[in-house]
Every structure is written in structure tokens, then in C-alpha cells.
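Weekly puzzle thread! Below is a chain. First person to post its structure in C-alpha cell form gets bragging rights.
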Amino acid sequence: MSARKSIHPPIVSQKKWLAARKKLLREEKKVTRQYDRVSAARRRLPMVRLEKKYVFETPQGDQTLRDLFAGRRQLIVYHFMFDPKWKQGCPGCTGFVNALGDLSMLGERDTTLVLVSRAPLAKLRAYQKKMGWENRTWVSSGWSDFNYDFHATLDAKVAPKEYNYRPLPGFAGEAHALSVFFRVGQEVFHTYSTFARGVESVTDAYALLDCTPYGRQEDWEKSPRGWPQKPTYG
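Winning reply:
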């Protein structure tokens, strides 16, 4: 966009800007306090014991969900959209993983992060190498019910008839999501799941864009008329 046609916020004096900024700051503090309240409520969610045994294809061989904890008490699973028929992973999920920074703090706090997809491990490994994600743990849920049970796959499963899967009404295909599990001894519990925009706050890219005048530049945002915008997945 040329300087002559540039669309930008109104230009005001420092005094007027400071007054507007302080007004917005009051609203930002309300959001922060509300976020803290929601996080506190999330920490008080009950959990459900998992009776089913899930097996994943990993570089170290077949592993159970409990194995994926890597000896820690908390496990975060990012459901990366990668249908077995696809040649490459979802662009949105790819951007999510690219935006992940140093996660060493997770291990220091007894927590493991794992990416899970339905595509075969060989396909995941090839894409992982292409993207330079060797430092991320990525495993295949394959033909197991894992993606379906946690609503990260919503299509009619092409698998042996004994699975007897019924798709959720009005939904089809893969979905990106985040699921959290907790281990007590040898038992595994499901504590939390979130989908769609509930996942976006885990990385910093959107939060950084939210600080700019143009924002995320997506067409669902309530931006001033003329602001650059495009479809979220356009």
C-alpha cells in the first residue's frame, strides 16, 4: 500500500492520545482480571478417568497415552489437522507450530506437549523434517479412536466396521483442538479441551497483531472501514 493511499488511525496531539490510551487501559485491565478469573475456574475443573487404552505410533515404537507423558504429571495434546489422505498438514496448524517458542518452561513445571495427528507417522516425520520441527514431539493416532473421542475428527471414519462410528450432526472433517490430561500414578484423566479460537491464545503471534492498528487483518474483526482485511483462511 503506497503512502499516498495509506489508511491509518486519526492523528491527534500527545495529550489527546494519552487520554484515549488511559481509557483503553481501563478496559484492558478488566480483560486481564477476567482472564485471571477464568483461569482460576479452569484450574478447578473436575476430571474424567480414561478407561480406554489409546495406542500411538511414535519414533520409539507404539506407545500408550500414559507413555506420552514422558514421566511427567501433565500432558498437553495439540490436535494437528493432518488427514491420512492429505499430502501435507493444515496451513493453520502449521502456523500454530511455527509460532511456538521456547517451551522449556513446560518441562520445568512437570508438563509435556505432544502433537497428535491421524496421518501415518512416516508422513508426519517427512513434514516435520521439511518444517524444521525436530524439537517437537509428533505422533500418529492412526486408526485409534483418539481423535474421534476428543472431537478432533468429525467425519465418517473409514475404518473397520466394528468401530461403529457416528459423525456429529452438521460437522465433517478434521478440527484443530487442544486437550489436556493429568496422570495420577498409572491412571490418566482428561481435564480440559478447547477448540477453534480457544486455541489461538497459546501462541504469541495473534496477541502481537492485536496490539497493532490493523490488528489481525481478518474479515471477522470489527475494524474501521477501509482497514486491510481478508478471510481467515483465504
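Puzzle host: Confirmed. Bonus trivia for everyone else. Confidence is low (pLDDT under 50) at residues 157-171.
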